[in-house]
From TrEMBL:
One Pfam family named in its UniProt record: Reductase_C
GO biological process: execution phase of apoptosis
Keyword Iron: yes
Subcellular location(s) per record: Mitochondrion
Role summary: Induces apoptosis through a caspase dependent pathway. Reduces mitochondrial membrane potential.
Keywords associated with the record: 2Fe-2S, Apoptosis, Electron transport, FAD, Flavoprotein, Iron, Iron-sulfur, Metal-binding, Mitochondrion, Oxidoreductase, Transport
Regions annotated as coiled coil: none
Organism taxonomic ancestry: Eukaryota, Metazoa, Chordata, Craniata, Vertebrata
Source organism: Baryphthengus martii
Protein name from the UniProt record: Apoptosis-inducing factor 3
Keyword hit for Transport: yes
Family as reported in the entry's similarity comment: Belongs to the FAD-dependent oxidoreductase family.
Length: 601
């Protein structure tokens, strides 16, 4: 059934019969001293302890203290953004205690006061990153940095916050990390940890190892010419230069002794000898290996595919080149994928014309459902994007070697100066076929909940893997999302250090088009119904994706923070069910979401 606007829907939150007696180990929780073997030598090390000092501010001139409210101004479970004169903080009251942390999400600057507070952490309303309210530590992604934590004191019924001016201005904190010891003694052809791939999974793995006190050699290698960068921006902000979207500056990698080999492609992995063989013949031995190679975009296989100005968006240079060539020209985008639709939206105001060719009847039909897909399609059409649906490209025609026209199987001929191909991708795992590492029929690396492959000491993460998703009863799934890649990298690093941590995060993604965002949480593969609340025509809605009686995913536009709220419910192990008999309204317009916590009717 499809429900809209004022239709009564009851969605029930079901708490499992057996609540966990103990909370799962936080990714940022303390661990006992570790014993780790390095090249046959046993090395002991302890995580650095950083107790909060009575006066952690070394420079008194950098400190500000201000009264921000009365103790009775906040109820338990409430948050307030407070101004300290030279910057703002987020004041939180939970279980009778006050906490103060940075007020902006370090990822893209979302106001956390509009997020979701639940069981000791606050979740970002935009992209779902989670932060511990007591420490400020990041506990779920995307993003790399944690929140600054500020001192709170109560005097004469007033709440005071004492904070560093610098922290108030930066609104971010990089966790303490170890450095590599005796780096000069290492053989260049050997490393303790080798990470193949320098995307989110690879970088978070390296950073987590250092955060946990790991002090041996870490080498990352990538086919890219750049240090790790914010890949989602390639289609959302196409004219960004590499240095603008870098996840970390060069100095960061030098400071924490994380070596990055750019423009280096691994051709094979010898698991018996624990050696990676590079395309140029160079070999590197490893003790632990992470494979985080991502995927490779599919190319067109039609006649004329070799002509110039046909692009897959894989690098910043690709995106920059497309923007330059597309300005005031005719652009054809093949594939109404996330990448294809985001590129179409970005180029719509810059190009003379933008046409989009898609085999399906409606964009995003399999992911968001037909009705949401049609609403998005209508938004694009109102922004001068022309759709050619239920057809494919049969030929690319050139003039003087450059693209001139695109012929569709329907017979239609489109003028085209630039073509962007977004017809999907395949896992970049071809180099592993003879390795002995288990790969499924589609080329995905098979891992368990600890991101381990079938080979001891070999882990895999990111877009190239299938893993058991707790949310869907441990069904093996591939979730090629930016947030998930971060968490894969963290879990892999912790298990390289024998922490025994299992992945249990809720998938969270977003797409941005024409200044509007669709947020999505869960895993809706195989949904059989969509419950829609709101107004699709006004692009203000929330859609629940159900399978049988269970909500498996949610999407929204202009309904923050509902997706983050649902993500928190699912992360707590609760089941949200749809009932056929309707006896209450979903009061989203008034902001009432108490039904999600089981407090409402």
């Amino acid at each position: 059934f499809l429900f809209v606007a004022a239709v009564e829907v009851k969605i029930e939150v079901v708490i499992p019969e057996k609540e966990r007696n103990k909370e799962e180990m936080s990714p940022n929780g303390k661990a006992s001293p570790l014993i780790y073997k390095v090249n046959g030598t046993t090395r002991h090390y302890h995580l650095e302890e950083h107790p909060i000092a009575s006066n952690p501010y070394h420079n008194p001139k950098d400190v500000v203290e201000a009264s921000v409210c009365h103790v009775k101004d906040l109820e338990n479970g409430q948050m307030r953004e407070v101004d300290l004169g030279c910057g703002k903080a987020l004041l939180i009251k939970e279980s009778g205690e006050f906490h103060a942390v940075g007020h902006k999400c370090p990822h893209y600057g979302a106001p956390l006061v509009k997020g979701v507070l639940s069981k000791g952490r606050v979740r970002c309303p935009w992209h779902g990153a989670c932060f511990n309210i007591a420490t400020g530590d990041i506990e779920d992604f995307p993003g790399l940095d944690s929140l600054p934590r500020f001192q709170v004191k109560i005097e004469k019924e007033k709440v005071y916050i004492r904070a560093s001016k610098q922290a108030l201005q930066t609104q971010r904190r990089t966790k303490m990390m170890a450095k590599c010891i005796s780096l000069s003694n290492y053989n260049l052809s050997g490393t303790n940890v080798l990470i193949i791939g320098a995307g989110a999974a690879g970088l978070v793995c390296a950073e987590t190892l250092r955060q946990e006190g790991f002090s041996d050699r870490i080498v990352m290698c990538t086919m890219d010419r750049h240090l790790p960068y914010d890949r989602p921006k390639l289609s959302k902000s196409m004219d960004s230069h590499p240095e603008q979207i870098a996840l970390r500056p060069k100095e960061f990698f030098r400071t924490y002794d994380i070596e990055v080999l750019t423009e280096m492609q691994v051709a094979a992995v010898d698991i018996k000898n624990k050696t990676a063989v590079f395309k140029d013949g160079f070999k590197m031995e490893y003790n632990k290996l992470l494979i985080a190679t991502g995927n490779t975009p599919k190319a067109l296989s039609c006649k004329g595919k070799e002509v110039e100005n046909v692009f897959n968006i894989r690098t910043p240079e690709d995106a920059n080149r497309v923007v330059k060539l597309a300005t005031s020209k005719n652009v054809v985008i093949v594939g109404a994928s996330f990448l294809g639709m985001e590129v179409a939206a970005y180029l719509a105001e810059r190009a003379h014309s933008v046409s989009l060719v898609e085999l399906e009847e409606v964009p995003f039909k399999k992911f968001f459902g037909e009705r949401v897909g049609r609403a998005v399609m209508k938004m694009f059409e109102s922004n001068r994007v022309k759709f050619y649906m239920q057809t494919e490209v049969s030929e690319l025609r050139e003039q003087e070697g450059k693209l001139k026209e695109i012929v569709l199987k329907s017979g239609k001929v489109l003028r085209a100066d630039v073509c962007v191909v977004g017809v999907g991708a395949v896992p970049a795992t071809g180099f592993l076929k003879q390795s002995g590492i288990n790969i499924d029929s589609k080329g995905f690396i098979i891992v368990n909940k600890m991101m381990q492959t079938n080979i001891p000491g070999v882990f895999a993460a990111g877009d190239a893997v299938t893993f058991p998703l707790a949310l869907r009863n441990n069904k093996k799934v591939n979730v090629p999302h930016w947030q998930m890649a971060h968490m894969h990298g963290r879990v892999a690093a912790l298990n390289m250090l024998a922490h025994g941590v299992e992945i249990s995060t809720v998938p969270y993604l977003w797409t941005a088009m024409f200044g509007k965002s669709i947020r999505y949480a869960g895993h809706g593969e195989g949904f059989d119904d969509v419950v829609i609340q709101g107004d699709l025509d006004e692009l203000k809605f929330v859609a629940f994706y159900t399978k049988s009686d269970e909500v498996v995913a949610v999407a929204s536009m202009n309904y923050d923070p509902i997706v983050s709220k649902v993500a928190e419910v699912l992360a707590a192990g609760r089941t949200i069910r749809k009932r056929d008999h309707c006896c209450s309204f979903l009061s989203f317009r008034t902001g009432d979401m108490s039904w999600l916590t089981g407090k409402g009717s």
